[in-house]
Write a structure and sequence with these properties.
Length: 362
């Protein structure tokens, strides 16, 4: 008797759950516990995602039965029986309605979305599109179906929410603002004149609004996403202090989630550039980083964590597994961000303005 997995929600949870497949020699080489179950022909184990990362819990253990047979192989009596363990149910924090809604809204795009509960860190949706049907992998995917997935320019097999790293762009400006406030470089009402560009040597660093924003304070800089304000602020704050602040909010962190190939992204500083490329950091690199460009790379998950920490005011950690065998997985204690609450309020106000006030660019 064998067991197989079925994924009734199809592509909605494909990147999170992953899928199972037959045990390979490679699987046996990387698994320390040589469970006899793994030797059964066509036995299936997790290959990627939660299926792989939490493989041991739902797998359970095999039972056994000792019998006595006669010379013809007929069973005469049962000597001993040891019942098997069916394994533990694993419950995730995801909300299927929200997961499905996000997938439906993005289904024709190469995109990712992450939704977190800012109070406890529970991940309510974590999606990557386009997706795939994990049921096709359970008994071995056909060559034609696999080529369709691997040759697509939209990379459906990659989980863009945690594996994909992208320039965060203007979403990074909150980190620069907090670094400036915390180190006393700016006050909320200080203004910077935006003429549409700033000059460094013989090079111009342009604002997205070529005509400029005029005099800009902190709230306006976030609401209208003024690049020049952050060029000048970052020049004074310096990349090392910006990077240190960003790491408090989740940049350069892979997080302890049972998902495959969770990336750390890149939060560069002077030491990183020297070690990676044997180069000295330049002021121009700081100006690029100020608006989330240059060497800065982040995952959608990291940006969701950053936003949750700004909203919560603590170092809330993302959680994907809610319970194992009906036992709740404890929440990690949210550490202090060591950031002035008044400064967080100022940044929240700018984030509110970018969506809800006149001139807001979101």
């Amino acid at each position: 008797v064998g067991l197989s997995r079925s994924y009734p929600m199809g592509s909605d949870f494909a990147h999170v759950l992953g899928y199972v497949g037959a045990v390979s020699d490679y699987d046996l080489s990387r698994i320390e516990d040589k469970d006899p179950l793994l030797q059964i022909p066509k036995f299936q184990i997790g290959k990627v995602g939660v299926e792989r990362k939490m493989e041991a819990a739902p797998r359970g253990s095999a039972g056994s039965r000792q019998i006595e047979v006669n010379a013809n192989g007929r069973v005469m009596r049962e000597l001993e029986r040891q019942e098997g363990d069916p394994g533990a149910d694993v419950q995730l924090t995801l909300d299927h309605g929200l997961q499905n809604f996000a997938m439906a809204r993005m289904q024709y795009e190469s995109a990712a979305a992450v939704v977190m509960d800012v109070n406890n860190g529970d991940i309510l949706a974590i999606t990557s599109t386009p997706s795939f049907d994990p049921n096709k992998f359970v008994h071995g995917i056909s060559g034609a179906d696999y080529r369709t997935l691997t040759e697509s320019k939209y990379r459906p097999l990659a989980d863009k929410s945690v594996q994909g790293t992208y320039p965060p762009g203007s979403t990074f400006k909150m980190m620069v603002a907090l670094a400036g406030l915390e180190h006393g470089v700016i006050q909320p009402n200080d203004t910077q004149r935006c003429r549409g560009f700033t000059t460094l040597g013989n090079r111009k660093f342009h604002c997205w609004k070529r005509g400029g924003h005029g005099n800009v304070d902190l709230e306006t800089s976030l609401r209208r996403s003024c690049d020049v304000y952050y060029y000048e602020l970052a020049r004074e704050v310096g990349i090392d202090r910006i990077a240190e602040m960003a790491r408090r909010f989740g940049f350069d962190d892979a997080f302890n989630l049972p998902m495959s190939a969770v990336s750390r992204g890149i939060m560069p500083d002077k030491t990183w550039l020297a070690q990676r490329y044997s180069q000295d950091w330049r002021v121009g690199d700081t100006l690029n980083a100020a608006i989330g460009q240059g060497y800065v790379l982040a995952t959608p998950l990291q940006l969701a964590v950053m936003t949750a920490r700004i909203a919560n005011g603590t170092g809330v950690e993302p959680r994907l597994v809610k319970s194992v065998a009906s036992a709740e997985v404890p929440l990690e204690t949210a550490r202090s961000l060591r950031v002035n609450e008044n400064h967080l309020r100022l940044v929240r106000d700018g984030m509110f303005g970018v969506v809800n006030r006149s001139g807001g660019t979101a």
